[in-house]
Amino acid sequence: MSRVALLLVLPVMLACSKKEAPPADTMAVVTEAAAPNVAGKWTVNVMPEGQDTVLLTYVLDATNDMTGWKLTFPGRDPLDVRVISMDNDSIVIENGPYPSALQQGVMVTTHSNMRLDGDKVVGTTIARYDVKTADSVRMLRTEGTRQ
């Protein structure tokens, strides 16, 4: 008889029990990372990795979104910059192929990772030269200041 009573009482207890709200889905709220405030003109120095010798300087015209960026070497027309990502304090850009400013008569494509560091933008650039020799890739360091 106790089994029958349990079978009768259990559904009533379950029906009268207070339903708890389901646990919050922590994956449901996705916030977009803030883009860095990089809008403006930047004077960027390019140096060999691990050295302070400036190889060349260019002007980077940046916006606070992924469109409208330009890179201008001295005495040249501006180049369009492809912004791959902007996120928190980091920016990834690509350029090229375009005529190299460091190796005459050679085309180059660059991939740069930069981040805001106080009032500067600092980072590294991988330059891939269109040559058939072992020195077709060069690692460079960049440091820019807002004009």
Characterise this structure:
With 147 residues, the chain is mainly β. The chain is built from one helix and nine strands; from the N terminus they run αβββββββββ. The protein has one helix spanning 2-16; strands spanning 40-48, 56-62, 70-72, 79-80, 82-87, 90-99, 107-117, 120-129, 137-146. The chain is globular. Mean pLDDT is 85; it is low at 27-31.
Here the CATH topology equals Lipocalin
Give the uncertain stretches in residue-range form: 27-31
Domain count: 1
Shape: globular
Give the CATH level 1 class: Mainly Beta
Strand order of the largest sheet: 4-3-2-1-9-8-7-6-5
Biggest sheet overview: 9 strands, antiparallel
Can you give the mean pLDDT?
A: 85
CATH architecture: Beta Barrel
Percent in helix: 10-25%
Instruction: Compute the number of helices.
Output: 1
In terms of DSSP E residues, the strand content is over 45%
> What is the rounded distance between the termini?
89 Å
Radius of gyration: 28 Å
Question: Would you tell me the structural class of the helices and strands?
Answer: mainly beta
Strand segment tally:
9
**Helix-strand topology string:** HEEEEEEEEE
Brief rundown of the structure:
The chain has 147 residues and is mostly beta strands. It is built from one helix and nine strands; from the N terminus they run H-E-E-E-E-E-E-E-E-E.
Layout: helices, strands, pairs:
Blueprint: H1 2-16, E1 40-48, E2 56-62, E3 70-72, E4 79-80, E5 82-87, E6 90-99, E7 107-117, E8 120-129, E9 137-146
Antiparallel strand pairs: 1-2, 1-9, 2-3, 3-4, 5-6, 6-7, 7-8, 8-9
